[in-house]
Amino acid sequence: MTRARTHRIDLALQGGGTHGAFTWGVLDRLLEDERIGFGAISGSSAGAMNAVALAAGWTAGGRKGAREVLRHFWSRVADSLRLARWAEAWLGAMPNGALAAAAPMQAVWDVAEAWFGPATGANPLRAVLRDTVDFDAVRGCTGMQVYIGATQVRSGQLRIFSGAEISIDAVLASACLPMLFPTVEIDGEAYWDGGYMGNPSLLPLLYESPNLDLMMVQLHPSRRERLPRTPAQIVERIQEIGFQGSLVKELRALAVLQRVVRDEGMDTTRARMPLLRKARRLRVHRIEGGEQLDALALPQPLQSAWHHLQALRRTGHAAADRWLQENAAHLGRRSTVDLVAEYLDNGNR
């Protein structure tokens, strides 16, 4: 019996609070499929946490090990939420949307500061990461390069951590929403959530990875048809656009490069810029939660955190399963996302 070819894909994992459990489900389904191999991973916030859990587990035990570490990590996240049920009820699953929907916002921030603010120096995710992710394994992972984005507070620029730079502090910096958690300092530099400037950044995958299939796992929908009407919906959409904006800009820039090299017949084999050669050959794919995650945005008062995260995992698993059924044959052959049509055509120039 002929063994199916393995396609190595790069992963771009978006952040989005506990909606990162959707990404857990996506990764769990991809790990089940031996046709899928993994190359480089770029992640911010919850995407960074999924990235290091995947890499640590893969190093220790391959596909099975990766699935076990991801499950262990999210079960510990559930324990953390259970011990702080006010955070689950007030803040919900998204780091941005729930703050927008809660009223009055200042009251939420006051409570957050009292529990998790700089005065206490407490971040429950530190213990979760310490107990579930072997960072020596992540740093020593040779077959899977991990890139973690965090925003420099003073300059507003994106910092990418990779290789020996990856640590618990780097991941906490990538997930540091400053109204909830204390600012993370690394080597004298202050950092906030990477989602502000790269959610996630595609640049390290484009510049440093040889793989030509890029899978984006997006938690924020690429498009919403229904207009927001209420004040809470409007503020939530504004913040959602803000967290999506950096990725949209990078995808639009990539679409411009693809149009130049394809439509104008540029000979990329002789081009001096590797990025142009990569843009021409890159195959882009997307699995997104989109509006199907809206129903899972806020846990019910009597609903356990683990039940909620499991629902998100199942949704992600199903989304990845649908994608594989419809698109797995295209891996290694063509893009399943037309960036030029999405970001440059239809009046989007």
Offer a few descriptive terms.
single chain; 8 strands; eight-stranded mixed beta sheet; alpha/beta; 349 residues
Q: Segments where pLDDT lies below 50 for 5+ residues?
A: 88-117, 298-303
Number of helices: 13
> Given the C-alpha coordinates, what overall shape results?
globular
The count of β-strands is: 8
- Oligomeric state of shown chains: single chain
Beta-strand percent range: 5-15%
SSE run:
EHEHHHHHHEEHEEHEHHEHH
* Averaged pLDDT: 84
Largest sheet: 8 strands, mixed
Report the helical percentage.
40-55%
What gap, in angstroms, lies between the N and C termini?
49 Å
Give an overview of the whole structure.
This protein is α/β, with parallel strands linked by helices and about 350 residues long. It contains 13 helices and eight strands. Strands 1, 2, 3, 4, 5, 6, 7 and 8 form an eight-stranded mixed sheet that branches. A hairpin with a 2-residue loop joins strand 5 (about 185) and strand 6 (about 190-195). Helix 1 (about 20-30) packs across helix 2 (about 45-80), helix 2 crosses helix 6 and helix 10 crosses helix 11. The longest helix has about 35 residues, at about 45-80. The radius of gyration is 20 Å and the shape is globular. The model is unreliable at about 90-115 and about 300-305 (pLDDT under 50).
Summarize the structure.
With about 350 residues, the chain is an alpha/beta fold. Helices cover about 50% and strands about 15% of the residues.
Structural topology:
Elements: E1 7-13, H1 20-32, E2 36-44, H2 46-82, H3 85-91, H4 97-101, H5 105-116, H6 124-132, H7 135-139, E3 146-152, E4 158-162, H8 168-174, E5 184-186, E6 189-193, H9 203-208, E7 213-218, H10 231-263, H11 274-281, E8 283-288, H12 305-327, H13 339-343
Parallel strand pairs: 1-2, 1-7, 2-3, 7-8
Antiparallel strand pairs: 3-4, 3-6, 5-6
